[in-house]
Structure of Glycosyltransferase 2-like domain-containing protein:
Amino acid sequence: MNELTICTVSYGHKKLIEANIDLFKKYNSEVDVSWIIVENASQNMDRFEIGKFSNVDVLSGLERHESRIASGSYHHASGLNIAVKEAKTRFVLVLDPDFFIINKNWAADVINHMKENDLVFFGVPYNPKRYLKYRYFPCIHCLFIDTEKISKNEINFAPQYAKELHGQKNKKKTKTGFFSLLKSHARIILKRSQVIGSSRDTGYALYEKYGKSNSAKSECVAPVFKLKASKIKPTYLASMPNLLLEKILPDRLCYIPKNPGYYTQNGFKELDYPDFYGNDWDEFIWKGKPFGFHVQGAKKDGTIRSNDEVIPTLKKLTTEFEKI
């Protein structure tokens, strides 16, 4: 019996999604699923053909409005909303085209885990290095939803941006001296409150409604976060006052999450698996084993990897992984 529909949005991601479908078959040979792909790409891009093909249903997305703030996020969210509404199964997996789950038999294992633990949401959170994002709740990179416990009409992935930009700096000049020092420390704390978790990007509405709900249980897979080795290092790491504040302030004002077990510093490499983290891709651990990884498009020099660059690396690493 098919209990799972995988929903994803393509915007020039055809090759990545095809690779994801192939990888699913390798790790879930005895499980049937449906795929819903919303094609958001324009006609001159690498596109899926619209229509139904075996267990894959490709739907046409909405037009992108470039004039609005975060147009890409709103466009992506509109595709996710279309896909989820069309799903007919109890469980839905919202999946980024470049997120790959590599845990053997993961579809059946996750569904059984959600049933046994009465979970509404299950998935991966944002990596702690992305401190602008919400934490302790699964994000749209890989998010399972039990639609028997929550109506699909209640699911909305649209960003919730206000006109103000998060994390704006205070440009007022200040006086020197003791009181200036106190004001400086106060500004540091104020900035933290304005910056940490401030992003209202895709999926925020879901987090805002259910992230702290006692009636909608959720669980996160542990992201791998190696602070010293992280390529993304916010300026607070170079500030002694900020480092001291990190030890005494409550979690909501800390750049690094404090809840025990929320993240791990032991990645695939430390568990004797191929190293995806060293390729600047995010790794995720579940039950002491690799669960999945998220391909990061940006290179160390700031340029963007093309799909043609990603696919060979992806195939090489996943092939090595399968040998273990």
